Amino acid sequence: MSVKIAVALAVTISAGIALSSRAEARPEMVGISGDYTPGTIVVKTHERRLYLILDSGHAMRYPVGVGKTGKQWEGTTKIDGKYLHPAWSPPSEVKRDKPEMPDVIPGGSPRNPMGVAAMTLAGGEYAIHGTNVPNSVGGFVSYGCIRMLNDDISDLYQRVSVGTTVTVTR
Questions:
Q1: Does the pLDDT at position 15 exceed 50?
Q2: In what side-by-side order are the strands of the sheet with 146-147?
Q3: How far is CA 17 from its chain centroid?
Q4: Nearest to residue 12, comparing CAs of 133, 111, 151, 145?
Q5: Are 7 and 24 contacting, i.e. CB atoms less than 8 angstroms apart?
Q6: What are the b/e assignments for 102-130, b being 16+ CB within 10 Å?
Q7: Choosing a second label site near 97 at 20 to 30 A (CA), which of 14, 40, 85, 104?
Q8: Residue 58 annotated as catalytic
Q9: In terms of Cα–Cα distance, which of 122, 125, 120, 115 is closest to 153?
């Protein structure tokens, strides 16, 4: 794995906050308003939901985990890479918080916070990725990445391509 990929994936860690009810993988077709181009991914941090815009009034909606307090961001970027079972290297901020973490966690390891797939986002060290801690989906849990259930990231991964626009709002 290249250093760029490791760094791009490195800002998220699954400490996992146990939630009272576990999110279940089941993207839903929903109505949506707003001026979005079909194919765009919209993450509404306050809702802890990701929307894949299908047309001017419809989207697929997925539950997500988002950045914890002080780690949230907003803006527009693009998917710049897609990876199945990626290895993960914790960034310096995570290593500072958890110095016992290994330098690399191999892809496929149950300790790997990327889950089954990751899509890196241009211009930063963030990704939309799966998780091996499903109870964390639906919370404010990450270092800024967008965390999805493994079944949901697998579904979204098949629907979008490198270059897809991603808009994150608070």
A1: no
A2: 28-31, 58-63, 49-55, 41-44, 165-169, 75-84, 117-121, 127-129, 146-147
A3: 16
A4: 145
A5: no
A6: eeebebeeeebbbbbbbbbbeebbbbbbb
A7: 85
A8: no
A9: 115
Per DSSP, helices labelled H in the chain are 3-9, 92-97, 150-159
Are 150 and 116 in contact by the 8 Å Cβ rule? The answer is yes
Cα–Cα distance for residue pair 28/89, rounded to 1 Å: 33
| Amino acid, single-letter form, for residue 75 | G
Instruction: Find where tokens 């965390």 sit.
Output: 147
**C-alpha dihedral over 127, 142, 98, 3, to 10 degrees?**
10
pLDDT tier at 40 (50, 70, 90 boundaries)? Answer: very high
